[in-house]
Design brief:
The protein is 68% helix and 1% strand. The two termini are 43 Å apart. The longest helix is centred in the N-terminal third of the chain and has 33 residues. It contains 15 helices and two strands. The protein is mainly α. It has a two-stranded antiparallel sheet with strand order 1-2.
Length: 319
């Protein structure tokens, strides 16, 4: 065997796994301490509460406790799907979740690309700062702004009346057909700037030489966006899309609860509000827990399906 072959053979041999010694543990004691603290925190606040899921399979009574209530199997889940109210709530949640996902996801990408095209560095920073400030506002403030803007004497009705688009002010919160668009608009206004940050970071990671080569080939701005920017941020788009698909049933709670009223109740109720109504207001913890488990189960299934579709098409995936 030649010396060259011997060298190649040595290179192909895997490096031995370093042994963990007490000296190494002492050297990394601070890192290990904080890692252990995070694990303990996760176990206490994320995994131990899952024991409460037992209530969904019991005729839970607070006086009997979690481990002494009568076991009823899937009876609570059967009750859910035989309840016309829950079916309507599921429809509302799914519809608002899909609308919010589509609108906020697309608007964040479009906003990031357009903001990247701004030539003035100072102007770009100013617009970006202003755009993500609404993210830090609570939904109480956001819904208050919406109430003022969409009231009978609000700015929206004044503009529409002055432009002769309508004859008299519209009570937007009294008509179910306006509720879903209002929720979608509120989510776009509040979260677009914040969601665009990660896309802006992905755009800045694109090799500038690709834009230079496109310019040499005579590509304009739109051609560069189509041929360089979008392919460059495609992996980021796919990962975030997969993560957000699992949140379709997390359509929201605060905005629907705060903007909802008796006139739009048929379209404003979500699963989270249903859980609050049955689990807290009426004390039926078993039904509320069953509804929450159903939402979590569907979210996991959606993520797995979306991930498999991405895997088959050769796109970026979560696992």
């Amino acid at each position: 065997m030649t010396s060259k072959a011997k060298r190649r053979r040595k290179e192909n041999v895997a490096a031995p796994t370093p042994k963990i010694t007490w000296k190494e543990i002492k050297r990394q004691k601070v890192l290990l301490f904080w890692s252990a603290a995070i694990v303990v925190y996760g176990v206490i606040f994320y995994y131990l509460p899952l024991v409460g899921w037992l209530m969904a399979f019991e005729d839970y009574k607070p006086k009997d406790g979690l481990f002494h209530s009568a076991f009823v199997g899937m009876k609570n889940f059967q009750h859910l799907f035989s309840d016309a109210t829950f079916i309507k709530v599921l429809r509302n949640t799914l519809a608002m979740g899909v609308i919010n996902l589509a609108v906020t996801f697309i608007m964040a990408i479009v906003f990031a690309i357009l903001l990247n095209e701004v030539q003035s560095r100072k102007g770009k920073k100013t617009v970006q700062t202003i755009s993500y400030l609404p993210h830090f506002l609570s939904w109480i403030i956001v819904t208050g702004i919406l109430h003022d803007a969409l009231s009978g004497t609000g700015i929206v009705n004044e503009i529409l009346v002055n432009l002769h688009l309508i004859e008299k002010p519209i009570n937007f919160f009294a008509h179910p057909k306006y509720f879903w668009p209002i929720v979608a608009f509120a989510n776009v206004w509040k979260e677009t700037g914040w969601n665009a940050i990660i896309y802006l970071a992905a755009i800045t990671a694109i090799d500038p030489s690709l834009y230079e080569a496109a310019s040499i080939d005579g590509a304009g701005r739109w051609a560069k966006i189509r041929s360089v920017t979008l392919p460059g941020i495609k992996p980021t788009i796919m990962i975030l899309l997969l993560m957000n698909v699992g949140n379709v049933l997390n359509a929201g709670f605060e905005i629907q609860y705060l903007l909802g009223n008796g006139l739009v109740q048929s379209v404003s109720q979500t699963i989270d509000i249903y859980v609050l109504k049955w689990g807290i207001s009426q004390g039926n913890y078993a039904i509320g827990t069953a509804a929450g488990i159903f939402k979590s189960f569907v979210s996991i299934i959606l993520i797995i399906i979306a991930n498999q579709i991405a895997k088959r098409n050769g796109e970026e995936r979560l696992f």
